[in-house]
Amino acid sequence: MNKTELVKELAKHTDLSQAKAAEVVDALFDAEKGMIANQLRAGDKLVIPGFGSFFARKREEREARNPATGKTIKVPAKNYPVFKPGKTLKETCEK
After folding, report:
1. Which long-range contacts (CB under 8 A, 24 or more apart) does 17-25 make?
2. Which of 45, 67, 73, 84 has the fewest CB atoms within 10 Å around its CB?
3. Is the pLDDT of residue 95 over 90?
4. What is the pLDDT of residues 2-35, one digit of tens each?
């Protein structure tokens, strides 16, 4: 399912127009301004009971090797997003 299909399904299952459903999807999932991205950027965890949790992990600075040249380079530390599915979501997928 892509974003357009998600918007259509959300509109179908609620009393929202497709335009309003698109606003809701963007408010949650937009990579720059969405609620999930804002929580992760602030270093906070977003927990949706039964569904799962979104949080950021820190990857420490490390050394890596350029496979083309063999030269060692430093890869800077960075944060990356993580999603951990909740128990109910895991059980639903197993059925």
Report:
1. none
2. 67
3. no
4. 999 999 999 999 999 999 999 999 999 999 999 9
Contact 86, 48 (CB under 8 A): yes
> What whole-number distance in Å separates Cα of residue 11 and Cα of residue 24?
10
Question: Can you list the alpha helix ranges (DSSP code H) found in 1-95?
Answer: 3-13, 18-29, 35-41, 87-94
pLDDT tens sequence across 38-63: 999 999 999 999 999 999 999 999 99
**Domains of the chain with CATH codes:** 3-94 (4.10.520.10)
The count of residues in the chain is: 95
Pairing of strands 62-65, 52-59: unpaired
Please state, in angstroms and rounded to a whole number, the distance separating the CA atoms of residues 41 and 29: 13
Distance, in Å, from the CA atom of 53 to the CA atom of 22, rounded to the nearest integer, reads: 22
